UniProtKB/TrEMBL annotation:
Transmembrane segments: 32-49
Subcellular location: Membrane; Plastid, Chloroplast thylakoid membrane
Keyword Kinase: no
Gene: atpF
Keywords linked to the UniProt accession: ATP synthesis, CF(0), Chloroplast, Coiled coil, Hydrogen ion transport, Ion transport, Membrane, Plastid, Thylakoid, Transmembrane, Transmembrane helix, Transport
Organism: Eichhornia crassipes (Water hyacinth)
The protein's name in its UniProt record: ATP synthase subunit b, chloroplastic
Keyword flag Cytoplasm: no
Physiological role: Component of the F(0) channel, it forms part of the peripheral stalk, linking F(1) to F(0). F(1)F(0) ATP synthase produces ATP from ADP in the presence of a proton or sodium gradient. F-type ATPases consist of two structural domains, F(1) containing the extramembraneous catalytic core and F(0) containing the membrane proton channel, linked together by a central stalk and a peripheral stalk. During catalysis, ATP synthesis in the catalytic domain of F(1) is coupled via a rotary mechanism of the central stalk subunits to proton translocation.
Top-level taxonomy: Eukaryota, Viridiplantae, Streptophyta, Embryophyta, Tracheophyta
Length: 184
């Protein structure tokens, strides 16, 4: 261990090693050093810097091209969407107009059908009333005829005696016989 520490201690005693310090003569040292450093950087770094800048430029240009293509695509989609919207609006107006006209047509058809049905019902009602009146009249006639017939039979039975009855029968037989001779 003593050898290692001795070697560090002995570095401070080298005669070729001088002191480190700043040279404050700007005109003598700094412009020359700077021009050498800049010259080396330009000479060796120019290709790398150009490659980096070219790569960056190409990426920016490709990004711009992609953005332009995306913008064109978005504009095309927007135009197609607007065209579809106009088409749908036109179709909606047509459906609305057709729907209203269809509704009006159905309304007229329904009103006409209802009117026809009411007219048929009115005719049926009138026919039914007429039929019922005729039936009632016929029933009344039948009753009146039956009552008249019963009254006439009752009167005839009371007024007729047997001889008058036989004479009426003979007269009717004679009329029937004469009718029979006429038809032959």
């Amino acid at each position: 261990m003593k050898n290692v520490t001795d070697s560090f201690v002995s570095l401070g005693h080298w005669p070729s090693a001088g002191s480190f310090g700043f040279n404050t003569d700007i005109l003598a040292t700094n412009p020359i050093n700077l021009s050498v450093v800049l010259g080396v950087l330009i000479y060796f770094g120019k290709g790398v810097l150009n490659d980096l800048l070219d790569n960056r430029k190409q990426r920016i240009l490709s990004t711009i091209r992609n953005s332009e293509e995306l913008r064109r695509g978005a504009i095309e989609q927007l135009e197609r969407a607007r065209a579809r919207l106009r088409k749908v609006e036109i179709e909606a107006d047509e459906y609305r107009k057709n729907g209203y006209s269809e509704i009006e047509r159905e309304k007229v058809i329904l009103i006409n059908a209802t009117s026809d049905s009411l007219e048929q019902l009115e005719n049926f009602k009138n026919e039914t009333l007429h039929f019922e009146q005729q039936r009632a009249i016929n029933q009344v006639r039948q009753r009146v005829f039956q009552q008249a017939l019963q009254g006439a039979l009752g009167t005839l039975n009371n007024c007729l005696n047997s001889e008058l009855h036989f004479r009426t029968i003979r007269a009717n037989i004679g009329i029937l016989g004469a009718m029979e001779e006429i038809t032959d």
